[in-house]
User: What shape does this take?
Amino acid sequence: MMGRKDDYQSKMEFIDLNTFVPSDHILRQINEKIDFSFIYNKMEKYYSKLGRKSLDPVLLYKMLLIGYLFNVDSERELEQEVHLNIAYRWFLGLDLTDSVPNHSTFSQNRRRRFKDSTVFQEIFDHIVKLCIERGLVTGEVIVTDSTHIKASASKGKVEKVVVEKTPSQYLNTVEQEAKKIEKELEEKRIESGKKKRGRKPKDISTETISVVKTDSDSGLLKRPGKPLGPHYLAYTSIDTENGIIVDIHPSAGNINDCEPFVERLKVIQEKFDLDIKNVGADRGYDTTPIHHGLRTLEITGYISPIQHDNPFNTTSYRDFTYNKETDTYTCPNQKILHFTHLTLKENGNYFKTYSAKTKDCKFCPFRDACFGKTASKRTVSRPIAHDLLEANMQRAKISEYKYVQKLRRVWCEGSFGTMKIKHNLYKTYKRGIEKILEQCLFSALALNLKRMIKAIN
Assistant: This one.
């Protein structure tokens, strides 16, 4: 006989939401492994001791976390999802009859209470420290790369402006060495009675940049194989022991990958007291300033090398012999090329240029093969601290390099794909670097919690 359910009638029931959440549900596993009460201490300073009680800050944070764990990128939609989903209510400590916080609560807290604060960074760091304490993060190998995030801005509203170019943090060590070399060269000229000064590195005190009017913190991304238009970049460092993200740092989309690299490694070392032994990165990080920085931090870099086989300006440079003691080159015709000036390339590498005397090259039998008929003399360029670039090339030939680069591809590319598809990092509706940092931290934390649970279990 066909059954038919009677019309619904109101009745009173006692319901335990705990019984509705499966034992293997990710929210139950997170709730069992993480005590979120530490958030009260982190947020206490942002609340007044007077007035009526606010929304529970732990509930506020956990509700935002749900949105990133389950790829709900709209806070309005998140409010509806929590209203309907029993597991979400259970995780937040809300009964079926409790009202769900309004979506506007998040924007109000973001604009008023937590503006210019570091609370979300502090909470992210706390979870990373828990991973370190449990041995899930070791610092043995850290891999770094960046991924683009589509900005909430119009590529049609862009203006060109000239700005003062301040030296990047990652250039400091090389610039100091370059200044020292330039000073020594000038002193030699004075001693020899020469009045003519050598050429200085190209003036890069100003530059013309494109500013996106609708979100000036973003930048125009112009890279081969990447989408064009306003974007942000999320520089991400991952410990390869279990794929835990130890640092995520957003910047405008037109910033060079290598600029924040050394500084972020230093931040990780100091913040977590983490002994980083090895790092892996792609060829965009193979610059003299990067290798200088890694040597200062006592970290071994396994970086995909740019082909520095020919760092000079002709194919016959191998016929020139470098004398380290005199800092000179000797050509195949046994003539000496002396150091004359420094040149700063666009990629941030300083080059020392060595020049032969015009009279030595004028009737040289190797002239045509050496530099042709248009120039008057032969020059050779050598990057400052070229030995660091050569050392990296040598490391690229050993098995450890292949192993680290494999880890980089697995963890970086895998993490970026997962965060974009499942944890709200493909694009942003927010504007301003502070709000993008919040989005990056929550996305990375969502992935960290899943990997942390998997490693513990």
Summary: The first strand starts at residue 141 and ends at 150. The chain has a mean pLDDT of 84. The chain has 15 helices and 13 strands. The longest helix spans residues 399-422.
